[in-house]
Amino acid sequence: MQKSTKPAGYTLPIRLRPTHELADVLRKYGKEFLEKSKLSYQKIKVLRAIVNCRTAVLGGHLQRCTKCDYQQ
């Protein structure tokens, strides 16, 4: 087993959000895409769910500090 080189109390950094996400692309081009495409109702529902992901529509996204319980 390899000895850790991290200091005591070290926690992994929070994973940052990628620069581009599918939801961002759909928000920007989704209306145009839907106008030009013939998608089933189920596929349109999936696209809406992706667009609404991590927004207030679905309750938002909560982050909590593990040391002081600060939430944002």
Task: Describe, in plain words, how this protein is organized in 3D.
This protein is an all-alpha fold and 72 residues long. It has one domain (20-72). It contains two helices and no strands. α1 (22-36) packs antiparallel against α2.
Provide tags for this entry.
2 helices; about 70 residues; elongated; mainly alpha; about 40% helix; about 0% strand
Question: Alpha-carbon distance between the termini?
Answer: 38 Å
State the total count of DSSP E strands: 0
Portion of residues in beta strands equals under 5%
Percent of residues in helices: 25-40%
Major sheet: size, sense and barrel closure? none
Overall 3D form: elongated
- Rg over CA atoms, rounded to whole Å, is 19 Å
Mean pLDDT: 82
Order of helices and strands: HH
Which structural class do you get from the secondary structure elements?
Answer: mainly alpha
Number of helices: 2
Count of domains: 1
The low-confidence runs, each spanning 5 or more residues with pLDDT under 50, are none
List the helices and strands and how they pair.
Blueprint lengths: L21 H15 L4 H12 L20
Q: What is this structure, in a nutshell?
A:
Helices cover 38% and strands 0% of the residues. The chain has 72 residues and is mainly alpha-helical. Helix 1 runs antiparallel to helix 2.
